[in-house]
Amino acid sequence: MNKERAQWGTRAGFIFAAVGSAIGLGNIWRFPSVAYENGGGAFFLPYLFALLTAGIPLLILEFTIGQKYRSSAPLSYFKIRKGAEWLGWWQVIVSFIIATYYAVILAWSLSYAYFSLNTSWGDDTEGYLFSSFLKVLPGENAGQIGSIVPNVFFPLLIVWVLALAILFAGVKKGIERANRVFIPLLVIMFGIIVIRAITLDNATAGLQAFFAPDWSQLTNGKVWVAAYSQIFFSLSIAFGIMITYASYLPKKTDITNNAFITGFANSGFELLAGIGVFATLGFMAGQLGVGVNEVVSGGIGLAFVVFPQIINEIPTWPGLFGFLFFASLFLAGMTSLISIAEVFISGFQEKFGISRRKSVAFGAGTAAVISILYATQGGLYIFDTVDRFINQYGVALAGLVEIIFIAWIARELSALQNHANSMSDIRLGAWWKICLGLITPIVLGFMMIQTFTTDLQSNYEGYPTSLIMTAGWGLSIAAVLIGVLFTRFKWKGIHSSIPQSPNHKGVAK
Q1: Which of 236, 271, 412, 487 is most buried by its number of CB atoms within 10 A?
Q2: Which residues in the chain land under pLDDT 70?
Q3: For the domain with range 11-488, which CATH number is right: 2.60.40, 1.10.150, 3.30.420, 1.20.1740?
Q4: How far from chain centre, in Å, is Cα 143?
Q5: What's the pTM value of the predicted model, to 2 decimals?
Q6: pLDDT tens profile 187-221
Q7: From CA 72, how far away is CA 243, in angstroms rounded?
């Protein structure tokens, strides 16, 4: 390298950043409903199994690649095998696409944190979200863009200004400092939400619904796939983030310990979110005189329709409860957004030999401009389609290719295992290679076949074929092609002769 690589100030700083990346919107609005719909308390068994056989092994893999090769995702794969550089760029482009729409949800959260102070949404929370706030085009016009919605556009500007300020400040002074503040603040704020939630009337009914085990579900294959899917999508693995973050670690660091801490911290927050969300849903069910099963929701509907309804019913300080909830969403999303952006910032900086400031301005600046597309009247349909396809045929498929490449093509597992063991207290045994070489690719492969079959049979959400072909299939394929195109450019940020791994087949001790 021509210049000394940026580095975390402390080990705790890296862990805060990695945990901040892993804890995102999905922890709060996806995990509770997924657990409830897949066996309740019984779901924790496949969930824990998936964490130990896929989540943490993959975290260790990506931490080791990043720490060993001390490069962005594309350059790390290039160092493993020259012809694999495209895989890293594929993950970089996927991260870039996700950054463009992820920021919009943060803009919604920021607005709703303000709205919650006087419950601006009124009694019709669904109508307020889609008609008054987002001004969404009618369903028959899905695929059209429409005009820019000021309600979303201006908060989006604030989101990007804050994200750019953090990214411009660098790894240690920007990302590390921000996560050192945001993550403890997030835990404190969400902890207050949980305490308030479990003291609400009928909260126990919600918790019983969440934890009641349906053991018969353990024989259902879909439940196990749901557990692996939840672990896979919630740990920020397979789109270059953890490789990039680990590349800023010092030459000597405990890799496996860091991975276990990150994995269990993420799962601990998901459990906390489940308790808070279901205690609150129990309260709402009691207010409406219906069963908890009739108010369970997930995703955007849970956060921006159901929770405002609940906030309307809370007897004491509803505005404060609402503000804490949406501010928590904002903080969880912001720490993830800056980690996603860091993937392409690091890649562009190394590839084109430009300064970090230029890379932030070009990469994150371009993502910010494109994100305006999602602040339009048709933005919700485009967002929903892109999110669905880029997660399945970007993140998940790239993850499957990554594992097959490392385990079966490059046959790097033994070298990476030895590297991790050379500096970690928890030593990796045969279990790690079995998990990555067999279990994870089989489960991921099954997930991909299942999703691919479903998407071929019908249009996702019944959206027009033109939207599915452009924002769905078209963008997913374009991510791969653009990744390949990037390999045509020479590396300008590094010496022309890039050294291979210090010990391509052995131990780097």
Answers
A1: 236
A2: 1-3, 493, 495-509
A3: 1.20.1740
A4: 25
A5: 0.92
A6: 999 999 999 999 999 999 999 999 999 999 999 88
A7: 7
